[in-house]
Amino acid sequence: MKVAIIGQGYVGLTISAFAGEHFEVVGFDSNPRIVQQLNSGISHIEGVESSTLQMRIKAGRYRATNSGQDIAGADLVVIAVPTPLTKEREPDLAYIDAACKTIGENVSIPVLVVNESTSFPGTLRNYIKPAIEKYSQNMVEHLYAISPERVDPGRSDFNQKNTPRLFSGLTPEAAEKTREFYSKFCDNLIEVSSPEVAEAAKLFENTFRQVNIALVNEFAQIAHSLGISVYETLDAANTKPYGFMKFTPSAGVGGHCIPVDPTYLAAVAEEHGAPATFIRRANEVNLEMSEYIVNRVQADNHGSLLGKSVLVVGVAYKPNVADVRETAAELVIKHLRDRGAVVSWHDEVVGSWHGESSAPLSGADIALVVTKHDDVKVQDILASAPYVFDTTGKVPGAKGL
Ligand SMILES: NC(=O)c1ccc[n+]([C@@H]2O[C@H](COP(=O)([O-])OP(=O)(O)OC[C@H]3O[C@@H](n4cnc5c(N)ncnc54)[C@H](O)[C@@H]3O)[C@@H](O)[C@H]2O)c1
Q1: 177, 143 contact by CB (below 8 A)
Q2: Whose CA is nearest to atom 13 of ligand 1?
Q3: I want to staple 211 with a disulfide (CB 3.0 to 4.6 A). Which of 103, 147, 282, 311 is the partner?
Q4: Ligand 1 centroid vs 102 CA: distance in angstroms?
């Protein structure tokens, strides 16, 4: 069986690596640089080893392409393209639309199309199917299914094999073929009654995290105003063996999922006349965290950051990855610069970002830790500036939330 996977990023390449053990995989990506790199056996994604890629290429089980014609003979097509927000912070289905165009214009025999991109309930039925039909001029009747991706890049305890996978088809045949495909490399498949349930479940999982992160971020501010340690209080609450799940405060939420997916849920809810006030407020609390932190740092430094050299430590959105999408560091740096601070950042995992390079971990007036990668030593952070503020709870001896 030949499988075409549209989008070779975190999700698409990960699936390609697993599926390539059993099927011939064509990885279609619109970025020619990524295609060239992948075809020379170099992975750009944490969790997909270059050696695995090289093995698949050698066995004739993997090749990347940016030519739509190369997906023509596929039996199954997986969509794994970005679903970001527009400038107005609304769902942006432009990449999904482009993927539908590639499929519609190139796949002329009936296949199974599975969407793995995260989107709102109704996307498969009301958007993807009609779009592919439009682009193929209604010439082909494909099968359609959804199986939302749950991969957590950089994580080693849960992967494609042992993370339970939801799925549903627009028809029983689509669902059955989806089960057959994923059962080759996933141990636990859970079919739900409609694609809309699968789509909504994925959004709700990340909304659950978003609102709990917002709650703990608000609680960090309450704890500080009460003069008690937020961390000690959370540890104390966490001794309850049921009904509590510990989340920790931070400079805000980053990444492509938690700051984005709840907005997809809120948008579709509001379209159906159901207010999503809780989700909207949680988003605001998380976005406001950066300003709260900069206020705290300013207050500790005689009320002014003007002309102070501030080193932001860690700009990736989470530890041990190079991904900076929606990183909280962005807003932290903006607020610092707005107040006249001279800002540089240290993050050897990210390396370069916005045309700037990682600065040495030393010589600043103020160090502000946003993300702590495992390789960065606590004593080096503490030695980098006379005043260190930590938003991660991982730098004992620093000031912090
Ligand atoms: N990264 C994760 O941890 C994760 C987890 C669960 C779900 N998701 C969801 O999966 C989807 C993909 O996310 P990702 O993290 O893999 O994104 P990504 O940015 O890492 O990769 C997307 C890839 O798609 C390519 N692309 C864009 N438009 C294309 C097109 N029209 N045709 C072909 N290729 C195209 C890009 O060049 C890029 O390489 C999103 O909906 C995301 O929300 C991501």
Answers
A1: yes
A2: 82
A3: 282
A4: 15
Ligand 1 and 107: CB distance under 6 A: no
Distance between CA atoms of residues 10 and 14, nearest Å: 6
Confidence of residue 139 (pLDDT cuts 50, 70, 90): confident
- In whole angstroms, what is the distance from residue 6 CA to residue 67 CA? 11
Nearest to 117 by CA among 211, 257, 1: 257
How many helices and strands in the chain, by DSSP H and E?
Answer: 13, 15
> What's the whole-model pTM score?
0.92
3-state secondary structure of 399: strand
The residue contributing the CA closest to ligand 1 atom 25 is 7
Residue 375, number of CB atoms within 10 A of its CB = 9
CA–centroid distance, 367 to ligand 1, in Å, is 33
Rounded distance from Cα 118 to ligand 1 centre (Å):
9
Which residues are identified as catalytic? 257
| Interval 43-100: pLDDT, tens | 998 889 999 999 999 999 999 999 999 999 999 999 999 999 998 889 999 999 999 9
For atom 1 of ligand 1, the residue with the nearest CA is 10
11 lines ligand 1 (CB under 6 A): yes
Which one, of 176, 322, 308, 172, lies nearest residue 254 by Cα?
322
Going from the Cα of 141 to the center of ligand 1, the distance in angstroms, rounded, reads 25
Q: What angle do CA 134, 137, 139 make, to 5 degrees?
A: 120
**How many C-beta atoms surround the C-beta of residue 203 within 10 A?**
25
